[in-house]
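Listing S7. Sequence submitted for prediction.
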Amino acid sequence: MTGRLSIRQKEILELLKNHGGKVSSAELTEHFDVSVQTIRKELNLLSEFALVKRVHGGICLPVQRSNLSFSNRQIIHLEEKKQIASQLVNYLPEGSSIFLGIGTTPEQIARHLIHHPGLTVITNNLNAAIALCENPNIETHMVSGRIRATDQDVVGEDATQYLRKFQVNYGICGVGGISSTGDLLDFSPEESHLSQAILDNCEQRLLVADQHKFQRSAPVKSSHLKKIDMFFTNHIGHELLQLCEQHGVKVITADNASARSL
């Protein structure tokens, strides 16, 4: 199939992969310095070939059975993740307890906690645990279980059960994708079980995700926006904002640095 594609179409697919599985029409228009109509034609052709899925404002990969490697995800949308981390860390009061889940945004949260006055943290995120060691005022609990080398975390039934031993103030979890109906998506049942354990055993449920996670595909449903109390993101579009309004989710965005009680 790829032999039938133009150079631009092949580059669009490469950009899509490098952007974590979702890219906007505006980003493509700027990248190629062409009109919206030209990009729309290219995306329609790629969609007809079933190589991409059209979503509002852009495209995503049609089916993503597995996530990108952790090392790749660490550099994709890094500045947005740092912005989210900065906002969330300012929200956490001294002496509180938190779950810190899977993903590169939780890792950035851990890195931004270096100067926090004190927390108790339970995590399955190897990079987050290492970063937290730099702050002597943070007590860190690491789950046991199977290490996923490509994801640099710990998963499995032992890990899930360990999380369920705690009841914390704030459960912080990332997500593989957010569907157009508000489903929170992950890439494996193991990830889903861990996310559910975090959300089931905390007083406040905090979701962290950059704007590119909306309408990004992943095969496993972990939860739904209606079960989230606060959503930290770098920027939120109109459609996702409406979903948050509908389900009473409080949104904190890095681009306006303010909370809205929706």
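Caption to Listing S7: primary sequence and predicted structure tokens for the chain studied. Residues 70-260 form a domain with the Rossmann fold fold (CATH 3.40.50.1360). The chain has two domains: 2-60, 70-260.
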